[in-house]
Design goal:
The chain is of the alpha+beta class. The protein has helices spanning 107-119, 172-185, 213-221, 254-260, 302-310, 321-324, 343-352, 383-390, 434-442; strands spanning 4-6, 12-21, 24-29, 32-37, 53-58, 62-64, 80-82, 88-95, 98-101, 123-132, 135-143, 148-156, 158-160, 163-166, 190-197, 204-207, 227-235, 240-245, 263-271, 275-279, 283-287, 290-298, 331-337, 356-357, 372-375, 396-398, 416-418. The strands form seven sheets. It has a seven-stranded mixed β-sheet with strand order 1-18-17-15-12-11-10. The protein has a five-stranded mixed barrel with strand order 2-3-4-8-5. Helix 2 packs parallel to helix 3, helix 3 (213-221) packs across helix 4 (254-260) and helix 5 packs parallel to helix 9.
């Protein structure tokens, strides 16, 4: 059995500068500023921070010939040569001493060469990009006895502590694949979802209820119809990937929590200039230009609460934050799905991180001095500070298990897990609020 495969070439290394959009990264190598293609549409917030070291692969030049051409390069049928918009692709990033591959599509190569034989022991034949029922799946694998397996592969780059989480950004496509696989499972196919974790040392995999509650809830709901796997691989700087663990334990209990649409949250906002604002009973408050972090909670309708906070107009002033958001430039929400109210602990952590409290703001119903903290610089701009906010040590939450939780993929015990905030997003969709999801997707921004 193959022990390692190459998935990219290290042609050049550079430093991350910024990410103007999902598919473009600006990097710097010495005096050269390079526009690079980003092959991963996820948020990658904990990976792509200013100063992060990147691995670049030179992009191939594309040669296109008209379909009707009979003589390539003839005067009647000239060859059409189209250069890609960028000369480089960012294929990996260095993260706390590890190499994290970013080319999510190449997870299929890893699955085919290193993993399919583990999840389907009697594997006889593999067909890639198999179309059935109006959809296309990564693999159709057939056993020697004729049993057919459909396999959908997902690359997982978000690892916090001992927990791997997918996705790091909402994915309607991934949720749709789950529903389609469940239908096909009733037609005789054995259907698999394979999560390829590409770095770290996680002891478990969980669906991410913070960035995509709909996906988490759907995966838990359909678990008895699907076979869910998670595997860990390791990547070297030369692009060689090796298998570390073909069977990470999978816990789907976060899907139950995601369906309840409750938890705590942080709202991060930027004031582009100083303002004096009258905030309800607090009176006039002088706000400096800079960044503010607000801690709150919603024991029901979490997604609707965040959608309201992110809406700058067309709302009555009710919470203290409502007076501040109309003046904000950038505005983003960091949801934390949790059965425990973490609002006050989140606020206290901001003080410990160096934030300056705005007295009594947002804390009229508790004993805290404030739930709003000021930072002169973007609090998520450097990796150390981002990790401190994104992975607070007090966010351990005990997941409840019920008869609806599939024992098939879980040890069915109370699990203490640290939940990630690094996949912060304005698009935290839920089953209960699909329109909120649409609004949040429209307002997403990259820091």
């Amino acid at each position: 059995m193959i022990s390692a495969i190459p998935i990219f070439q290290n042609h050049r290394e550079a430093i991350f500068v910024r990410r103007p959009n999902r598919f473009l990264i600006v990097a710097r190598d010495g005096d050269d500023e390079l526009d690079c293609h980003c092959p991963n549409p996820g948020r990658l917030a904990e990976l792509l921070v200013p100063g992060a070291r990147l691995i670049l692969e030179r992009r191939d030049q594309k040669v296109k010939v008209p379909k009707a051409a009979k003589t390539v390069g003839s005067a009647e049928n000239p060859v059409s040569i189209k250069n890609p918009k960028t000369a480089w692709t960012v294929v990996a990033v260095f993260y706390w001493g590890s190499v994290v591959p970013l080319f999510s599509a190449r997870a299929n190569d890893i699955a085919r060469e290193l993993l399919l034989a583990y999840i389907i022991p009697n594997l006889h034949d593999i067909r890639a990009e198999f179309a059935v029922g109006g959809s296309r799946f990564d693999f159709l694998a057939t056993e020697a006895n004729g049993q057919k397996h459909l396999v959908e592969v997902k690359a997982c780059s978000l690892v916090q502590g001992e927990t791997a989480l997918f996705p790091d950004a909402p994915s309607e496509r991934a949720t749709r694949h789950l529903e389609e696989l469940a239908v096909l499972s009733r037609q005789g196919y054995r259907c698999h979802v394979l999560f390829v974790v590409v770095h770290g040392s996680p002891s478990r995999f969980m669906p991410n209820p913070h960035t995509d509650p709909l996906f988490a809830a759907t995966l838990a709901r359909l678990a008895l119809q699907l076979e869910v796997h998670a595997a860990l691989v390791s990547c070297a700087a030369d692009g060689m990937v090796s298998l570390v663990n073909p069977g990470i334990p999978v816990d789907l209990s976060p899907g139950i929590l995601a369906a309840e649409n409750r938890g705590s949250y942080l709202v991060v906002l930027e004031l582009p200039q100083a303002f004096t604002i009258t905030v309800g009973s607090l009176g006039a408050i002088d706000f400096k230009a800079g960044w503010y972090v607000y801690a709150g909670s919603a024991q029901k309708n979490l997604s609707q609460r965040l959608a309201r906070h992110l809406r700058k107009i067309r709302k009555k002033t009710h919470w203290h934050l409502d007076w501040l958001t109309p003046h904000a430039g950038k505005l983003i929400a960091l949801p934390i799905a949790s059965w425990t109210n973490l609002e006050c602990a989140l606020a206290t952590s901001q003080c410990e991180l160096g934030g300056k409290a705005v007295d009594r703001f947002g804390s009229s119903d508790c004993g805290c001095g404030s739930h709003l903290y000021y930072y002169p610089h973007p609090p998520l701009a450097d990796r150390l500070h981002e990790n401190a906010i994104s992975f607070p040590p007090f966010c351990a939450d005990s997941f409840r298990h019920s008869a609806h939780n599939p024992v098939k993929y879980s040890t069915c015990r109370r699990t203490e897990t640290f939940w990630s905030l690094s996949n912060f997003s304005t698009n935290c969709e839920t089953v209960q609020a699909p329109m909120a999801m649409k609004r949040w997707q429209a307002s997403q921004w990259n820091q």
